[in-house]
Amino acid sequence: MSRTVLIVDDETKLLHVLSVALEALGYQTLTASTGTAALKTLDVEDVDLVLTDLRMPGITGRELMRAIHERRPGLPVILMTAYATVRDAVDIIKQGASDYIGKPVEMDELESAIASALRLRDALRENQRLREELEGRYRFDNLAGSSAAFRAVITAVAEVCASKANVLITGESGTGKEMVARAIHFNSPRKESRFIAINCAAIPENLLESELFGHVKGAFTGALSNRPGRFATADGGTIFLDEIGDMPLALQAKILRTLQERTIEPVGSDRTRSVDVRVIAATNRDLLEAVRAGRFREDLYYRLSVYPIALPPLRDREDDVAELADRFVARLAAEMGKRVTGITPAARRAMASYPWPGNIRELQNCVERAVIVARGDLIDLPDLPPYLFQPTGAGATGERESRLPADLAAELEATEKRWIIEALRRAGGVQVRAAAMLGITDRGLWHRIRKLDIRVERVPKA
């Protein structure tokens, strides 16, 4: 993609020389002999970088740069001057120039300065795009769910966002604890600072302290240099301590001290550092039971749970399954480049009657698989994983093994449709054979195919 450089200089000959040279390097160029003309050009042209002389009659290069930054924030400006001292150069950069070039202009130096400024601009734009995408993903309206159980969660998140209070999020695995933690951060005054997540159960006990608080060179074998920990990296922002219930007791004491004194002490150091970090912790364990059993410090529990939020399992959010599934279909189909636009009513009923022991994470995995295997525009029963139709879903608990269907007619219909489709597949689309396999009459199969809206595809003979 060709980039456009606007060259501004009151020397007509230099304008021509620079324009020809930059076009030979693959850039498109526009020229202006005054700052006023340059600003008029910027009003009507899409420019990627401005290269301007510092000393010009009328609007100077510095004044032009300030006007550009007011009109087009982030547009790189490189200043050319034959009079710059080291102090001038430092001052130029401080005022917002991407770089400066001495006159007479060396083309190798100019080419390098332009390429560097454009790379930096591209990186900043990409970072901004990713940040907007990330913040958009964790807006309140992206916390999908209209059930009463989840509306209570949304209310709690809205209440706690603006405060500095520590938050403890509890819930089964897969219920979206990190999603809620990110929503709290990105809707809080700390959203411009970093959100740092760490899974306390995923890091070996002997490394977790260093990971959280950092270490100094020589603190232990392999500590070859000073390293900041996650708390230092999150200074000014939020740290998310996932699976806090798996944290060793010895380290719990150090976390408690950090919460009380707002300081950290790297491993191997006797110096403390102040940090301003909001802590959001999460667990799928019963921490009060862990406190009673002596596995979790009671004082730390109360420090963490200033504002507790309990996430309901998906089986208690039956009304939200369809909304969540639709969102997953839209996002995953776009990511995979597939033309899947929705879910058939029969598939929706099958999904609604399943208990989802793996919660939202299991639902997302199910939809992802269905989007991959779907042949049409809509996800249908054959696209769903077989375990959805078993009496007890994969991973279901003993408590759920004897569950009753929420809609018996819908579940029977979904099961009937699945077996008819399977029989037709094995019979190559020949309905007489499929009926024989199922032990029903041809006419009975025909009526069921019409009632269940099953599409019959004959397999051509070889």
What does this structure look like?
The chain has helices at 12-24, 35-44, 61-71, 86-94, 107-137, 148-160, 177-186, 205-213, 230-233, 249-261, 287-292, 298-304, 321-336, 345-352, 359-373, 408-426, 431-438, 442-451; strands at residues 4-8, 28-32, 49-53, 77-81, 99-102, 167-170, 195-199, 238-242, 263-264, 273-274, 278-283, 307-310, 342-343, 378-379. By secondary structure, it is of the alpha/beta class. The relative contact order is 0.07. Residues 393-402 have low confidence and may be disordered.
Distance separating the two termini:
50 Å
Structural class: alpha/beta
For the report, how would you describe the main beta sheet? 5 strands, parallel
Whole-angstrom Rg: 31 Å
Task: Give the tags.
462 residues; 18 helices
Summarize the structure.
The protein is an alpha/beta fold and 462 residues long. It has helices at residues 12-24, 35-44, 61-71, 86-94, 107-137, 148-160, 177-186, 205-213, 230-233, 249-261, 287-292, 298-304, 321-336, 345-352, 359-373, 408-426, 431-438, 442-451; strands spanning 4-8, 28-32, 49-53, 77-81, 99-102, 167-170, 195-199, 238-242, 263-264, 273-274, 278-283, 307-310, 342-343, 378-379.
